[in-house]
């Protein structure tokens, strides 16, 4: 009887035990952007957003992986994953990648990662932000757009950079970023901010409605009083 061939199991870890980010600023940016993007695309079930989680891009090679600070994939379900394996995801790679860079990571961000994002993943837009101004000066925001398999610089407008893929304008503000709708210019809010705004709008609408009703009642009272007053007969 022939021996059954043993199938080798390949392990794809979901963590490497390394810290999530260089500084509190970097960690905050990762969490903030992921939450904001997830909220912004919540109505769509074909947009996957994640941050600092492994993307495996070659089956059978667990070392072929990167963990972008934030990445957005279009055309894939938005449920949570331990890691993202492109061969299980119809070979959909991230369309946009954001890295919150520093002097310690600059060589990897501008060489190894850039080359993989451009040549292997074909990331449409690669954006870097240096919140502590370690080396990207005076413009701490930088972006690349894939054109004919090459990365071209995305032109800055002052402190702003527009992502065509996301339809968002990223605006540098001190050590953080403000995200705006590229069409309307309105600031994109976190889900918690949006809920608070909706609650404020509802309270304001109810208050305005109450004031209108109160004014109408006052006018009605005044009209009734005038109707109840005896008419003047014109005699002194």
**How many β strands by DSSP?**
12
Q: Write down the overall mean pLDDT.
A: 88
- Please identify the top-level CATH class of the largest domain: Alpha Beta
Sequence of secondary-structure elements = HEEEEEEHEEEEEEH
Radius of gyration: 28 Å
CATH architecture assignment of the largest domain: Alpha-Beta Complex
Q: In DSSP terms, counting alpha (H) and pi (I) runs of 4 or more, how many helices?
A: 3
Strand content: 15-25%
How far is it from the N-terminal to the C-terminal residue, by CA?
131 Å
Structural class, judged by helices and strands?
A: alpha+beta
The CATH topology of the largest domain: tt1808, chain A
| Major β-sheet annotation | 6 strands, mixed
- How many domains would you count in the coordinates? 2
> Could you say which overall geometry the principal axes of the C-alpha atoms support?
elongated
């Amino acid at each position: 009887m022939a021996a059954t061939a043993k199938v080798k199991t390949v392990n794809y870890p979901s963590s490497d035990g390394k810290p999530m980010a260089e500084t509190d600023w970097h960690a905050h940016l990762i969490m903030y952007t992921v939450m904001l993007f997830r909220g912004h695309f919540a109505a769509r079930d074909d947009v996957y957003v994640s941050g600092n989680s492994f993307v495996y891009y070659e089956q059978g090679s667990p070392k072929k992986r990167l963990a972008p600070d934030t990445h957005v994939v279009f055309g894939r379900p938005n449920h949570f994953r331990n890691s993202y394996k492109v061969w299980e995801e119809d070979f959909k790679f991230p369309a946009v990648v954001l890295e919150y860079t520093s002097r310690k990571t600059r060589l990897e961000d501008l060489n190894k990662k850039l080359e993989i994002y451009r040549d292997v993943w074909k990331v449409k837009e690669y954006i870097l932000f240096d919140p502590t101004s370690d080396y990207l000066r005076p413009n701490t925001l930088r972006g690349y757009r894939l054109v004919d398999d090459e990365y071209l610089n995305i032109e800055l407008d002052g402190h702003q950079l527009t992502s065509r893929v996301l339809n968002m304008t990223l605006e540098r503000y001190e050590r953080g970023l403000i995200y705006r709708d590229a069409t309307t210019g309105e600031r994109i809010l976190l889900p918690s901010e949006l809920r608070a705004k909706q609650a404020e709008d509802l309270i304001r609408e109810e208050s305005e409605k109450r004031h209108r009703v109160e004014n109408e009642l006052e006018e009605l009272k005044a009209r009734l009083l005038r109707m109840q007053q005896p008419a003047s007969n014109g005699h002194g």
